[in-house]
Structures are given as C-alpha cells and as structure tokens.
Design brief:
This protein has 20 helices and no strands. By secondary structure, the chain is an all-alpha fold. Helix 3 crosses helix 4 and helix 16 runs antiparallel to helix 20. The termini are far apart.
C-alpha cells in the first residue's frame, strides 16, 4: 500500500523531471515556429509587391497585421487557456496558423492576404506561443527560470532558419507554393501541443484545465430570461460589476492612471514600437533595391537571429546582476538608443559588408531590448498585478506595431527613397530612449526628495519607480502563478 501511495505521489508530481523536458523541447520548437516566423516575411516583400501591383505601404500591412495580432491577442488567449487548457489553445493555434498560410497561397489580392496570413495566422501564432509559455509554469518549478531561458532560444533559431528556408523555397517554387509548404510546417504546432498533456496533482483536477464555474446569479438570470421576464436589477448590476472586474483583470487601466513608472514605461515602449519593427520589414527590400543579391539579402536577417542566440542569454545574466537592481530601465534605454543610432549605418552605405556590420550592432541592441522588456515591467508594477499590466502593455504596443510599417511605406512611396525607413526608425527609437531615461531619472529624484522630506511610509516597497502603488487584488491563487509573456 505504501509503495502504491509513493508511486501515486511520483505520478502526481511531474514537475522538473521526466516528461517536463519533452515539454520544454516542444516549447523551443513552438517558439521557433511562431515568434520566429514573421522574420521571413521581408523575403517575400518584393515578389508580393510585383504580383499584386501593390505599393510599399499596402504590402507592409500584411506583416504589420500579423505581428500586431501576435502581440495583442494575449488577453483573448488567456481567456481561452482558462476555459479549455493550454493543450487545446496550442493545438487550436497550430490549426489556425496552418489554415491561414494554406489559404494565403490561393489569394488573388493583397487585401485577402491581410485576412489569411495576417489575421488568421497571427492569431494562431499568438494562441500557440502564449499557451506554450504558460504550460512551462506548470511543468517547471525549481528550474522554471532555466526552462524559460532555454525556450526563448527557439525564437533566435527561428529567426535564423526561417529566412534561409524562405529564400530557398522562393527560388525553387515561388511564393504561393512556399506559403502552402509553410502551412504544413506550422501545423507541427499541433504536434507540440499534443506533447503538452495536462498536469495532475494528487486528488485534484488538472491544473491547466479549470472547470468553468457557473455562478448562481447567472443561472437565475438564465431562468428568468427563459420565462420571458427581464432580469432583476441586482443581477444587471452584478453583470456590470463582473465585466468591470474582467476589464480590470486583463487591462490594468487603474495601474496606468496611478503608477507613474508604469505610465512612463508603457508610453515609451509604445512609441518605440513605431520604429522598432521597421528594419525587419524593409531591410531585405532595401538591400535588393540597392543591388544586393537576393540570397545575400535574406542572409542579413539570419545574421541577426544567429547573434541573438549567443548575446541574449549573456544580456539576461548581465541585467540580473545586483549592480543593475533598480537601474534596469537605464540599461534598457541605452539598448534602445543603440538600436536607433545603428540605423544611420544603413544611410551611410548599402554595401553588403556594411549591412553585415549593421546587423551585428542591431542584433546586440535587440538582445538587450528583448531580455529587459519584461524585467523592467516587473520592476515598475507589483507582481500580483503583473498579468493585467502586461495585457494593457501588449495591446498598446500592438497598435503601434500595426501602423508603423504602413505609414513608413507610404512615406517611401511618396519620396521613392528607402533611407526614410531608417530615418523614421531612428527618430522613434532615439526619442523613446531619451524620454524613458530622462523621465525615470526625474521620477527617481522626485522620490528621493520625498524621502528626504521624511514623508511617513507604512511599508517600504521594493518597486523603485512606483510613485503610487496600486491596490493588490484579493484573488485566489493556485500554484504555480500563470504569467502570459510575449517576447520581442
């Protein structure tokens, strides 16, 4: 009996052992398939433009919609995960991604491509990626940090391999057949989701498949509606309160209004995203336009991904050093500033050797931005509100990710000069870096002056940039805490 009980306990604790490492491998592949996929769109930019007789602005809406939906669909994905579990969300996302790319191979206009490859594939990638990150929190407890770091290498691998594969298939069989093959490749997200089986604890239901609880008020309201009578005013008030609580849970407007640090950081990153994605969309067309061979032009994006594989972990370790505790925002601003300044290299020359140097410097700066984005967010908000703060943060940045490339493409169409891509990108990145760095410096001085004037504080907060802490929500928490993270 004791042996049976011990075996049951071992089966009920799959964390950090056995099948958990298979789930980690699936998460690596998943991140390469989803987050790494948009990196190859620039390879098809010129061909799509010629086939559909579209302008730079019209063509750039396609990758913009895909990336914006990938980043902004987090709250919808979290609802899906809570309702049906991580495995279902990942497999549904893989199915949507595959269907979207297969459908895009039959598109007859650029607007149809917005719907298929942009919206459907982007939403599917969002579901698969975010649910895949979430399931790691269930399978890893002791090694959770290591697991997330290893899973993020899949993004760099995808960033390296997707452009090379895209250029090869494009040369061999054209963009339509390539998109058809991509649909089959993205269906492998369903295989990764099948590996992510629900986690069970002893005498409990699966952690990641919570049962939808039906509230008594909702049952009563349904009964009244079925009898043809209007709901009681109290039930209407409960419904409005529930809607408000859901909005507050997934979109933290109260934190944005009260927490100056979160407000500055969210505005700064949202403004930064107007220029951050421009080199990824226009670098390959810019190189081809200036006489670089198509295969070499596709190699530029792969260089960025390859360097990211080695630099990003180092940047994460460096930012975790105690010297940078409370000062990561300045390290982040420095990385954004370097990213903006690096764009002037492309303006100086469009030779392949110069563009390689540009990609190396850009990759280093991108590694810092990618490694620090969510660490800084954790510094400026309390962890019990991090999930809701992240929801508003990703939605706002997805808006500027959506409109940035098309607006720049319109400017290129008007001027017929690709240099404005890098001028625009530099403007947004440098201004965002200066805004965040100087604003947090002023906020830090303001907080220090308050402390010097001996303002009584009930408790010392470890969140340095929290001018006005938000009220913690009294929510029942089930271990482990689920955090939905979208990596850049």
């Amino acid at each position: 009996m004791s042996q049976g009980g011990a075996a049951a306990r071992e089966a009920a604790k799959p964390q950090d052992r056995g099948w958990a490492w298979m789930v980690l491998l699936a998460a690596v592949v998943l991140q390469g398939l989803t987050l790494g996929f948009p990196s190859c769109i620039g390879v098809f930019f010129t061909d799509l433009q010629h086939d559909f007789q579209a302008s730079n602005s019209e063509t750039s809406w396609f990758p913009s919609i895909m990336v914006a939906v990938l980043h902004g669909g987090g709250p919808l994905c979290s609802i899906l995960v809570k309702r049906f579990g991580c495995r279902f969300a990942v497999m549904l996302g893989g199915l949507l991604s595959g269907v979207g790319m297969v459908s895009s191979s039959f598109c007859q206009s650029i607007s149809q491509l917005y719907l298929t490859a942009g919206l459907i594939t982007g939403l599917g990638s969002c579901f698969s990626f975010q649910a895949g990150v979430t399931v790691l929190g269930y399978y890893f407890v002791r090694w959770r940090t290591l697991a997330n770091a290893m899973a993020s290498t899949g993004v760099s691998l995808g960033f390296t391999l997707w452009p090379l594969l895209s250029q090869y298939l494009l040369d061999e069989m054209g963009w339509r057949n390539t998109f058809l093959i991509f649909g089959g490749i993205l269906l492998n997200c369903c295989v990764c989701g099948a590996i992510m089986r629900p986690v069970h604890l002893a005498s409990e239901s699966p952690l990641e498949s919570p049962k939808p609880a039906e509230e008594p008020g909702r049952r009563a309201e349904g009964a009244q509606l079925s009898n043809g009578t209007s709901p009681h005013p109290e039930l209407q008030q409960q419904t409005r309160t529930a809607c408000f609580q859901m909005l507050q849970k997934y979109l933290a407007f109260d934190i944005f209004c009260q927490n100056k640090g979160y407000q500055i950081y969210t505005i700064g990153v949202t403004w930064m995203m107007m220029g951050f994605a421009l080199p990824h969309v226009y670098l390959v067309p810019y190189a081809i336009h200036n006489g670089v061979e198509e295969r070499k032009a596709a190699l530029l994006i792969s260089v960025i991904g390859l360097i990211n594989i080695f630099i990003r972990p180092f940047t994460g370790l460096l930012s975790g050093h105690r010297v940078f505790t409370g000062r990561r925002i300045y390290l982040f601003s420095l990385a954004v500033l370097l990213c903006g300044l690096s764009n002037f290299i492309c303006v100086i020359s469009a030779e392949f050797s110069v563009l390689i140097v540009y990609c190396v410097i850009l990759s280093i700066a991108m590694s810092g931005i990618g490694a620090l984005t969510f660490q800084v967010l954790m510094d400026v908000v309390e962890m019990d509100r991090f999930s809701s703060a992240l929801g508003l943060f990703t939605i706002l940045e997805s808006i500027t990710l959506l409109i940035g490339p098309p607006l720049t493409g319109l400017l290129v169409d008007i001027t017929s000069d690709f240099h404005y891509v890098f001028y625009n990108s530099s403007f947004f990145l440098i201004s965002a870096a200066l805004f965040m760095g100087l604003s947090f410096c002023a906020l830090e001085k303001k907080n220090k002056s308050k402390e010097a004037s001996k303002v009584p504080l009930d408790s010392h907060s470890r969140y340095q940039y929290n001018e006005m802490p938000t009220e913690p929500q009294s929510e029942t928490q089930s271990p482990p805490v689920v955090v939905y993270i979208t990596s850049i």
